[in-house]
Amino acid sequence: MRCAITEFQQEQKKRMRSVQDAMDALNGKWKIAIISSICCYGKRRFSDILNDVEGVSNRMLSKELKELELNQLVTRTVLATQPITVEYELTEHGNTLQTIISELSGWGIVHRKKITGK
Amino acid sequence: MRCAITEFQQEQKKRMRSVQDAMDALNGKWKIAIISSICCYGKRRFSDILNDVEGVSNRMLSKELKELELNQLVTRTVLATQPITVEYELTEHGNTLQTIISELSGWGIVHRKKITGK
DNA sequence: CTGAATCCAGATGGATACTG
DNA sequence: CAGTATCCATCTGGATTCAG
């Protein structure tokens, strides 16, 4: 009977799928930088993020913010100013990413040393 | 004097860069699945990984394994069998990713529930 | 100010066939 | 078995312009 092996592989598949789910929500060149920018300041306007995230274009920023909103990681609030301004904020769910981002940051530092600076 | 703000922003930039360093090493459609496959079994052959990672082509597998090797996350060992076989294994450094992968997996499960199943 | 629309170059990745 | 080479469709993302 090969149940043990089968179950083991099933677990492995589930694990891989859930990691992929996470990565799908975070993929895109700027997502993590955008999240960092917002969470760092609490609330953040479109043009602010545009300045924070070095190199991003308004086209990409708009697109990735929309995806983050779809994934319920940020909220978008239009303010009735003249001209209008828009505030982005992390949702509670978005905030749960902070642990992961911290760990990625930590690993990234070690990794960079490993590859370059030795 | 604006030192506090400046330092804060400096910290933020560093953090974003190191996260990006980490993501650079892990980007690519299959990297995490490949790492999962290898670490799950200890050692793994090319054709094994090809089977484990659903949907990957030999072209992509070859390419991403090469990148993982460059980033010193896996080692490649040619065995003198007939025909030759190749074993891939996680380096010590590659193994340090397990925590992050676990967390991503955990977050991915919560996230999927949030977005779909409620 | 906050985007959306268009255009376009370059990267990504699948299918297939081939080599040692 | 473990890749490499080639062809080709699609995706990505920058620059620029336009709109509410």
UniProtKB/TrEMBL annotation, chains A, B:
The keyword Transcription regulation applies. InterPro entries: HTH_HxlR, WH-like_DNA-bd_sf, WH_DNA-bd_sf. It comes from the Bacteria. Residues 3-116 form the HTH hxlR-type domain. PROSITE patterns: HTH_HXLR (PS51118). One of its GO terms (molecular function) is DNA binding. Keywords: DNA-binding, Transcription, Transcription regulation. It holds the Pfam family HxlR. The keyword Transcription regulation applies. PANTHER family: TRANSCRIPTIONAL REGULATOR (PTHR33204:SF29), TRANSCRIPTIONAL REGULATOR, MARR FAMILY (PTHR33204). This is Transcriptional regulator, HxlR family.
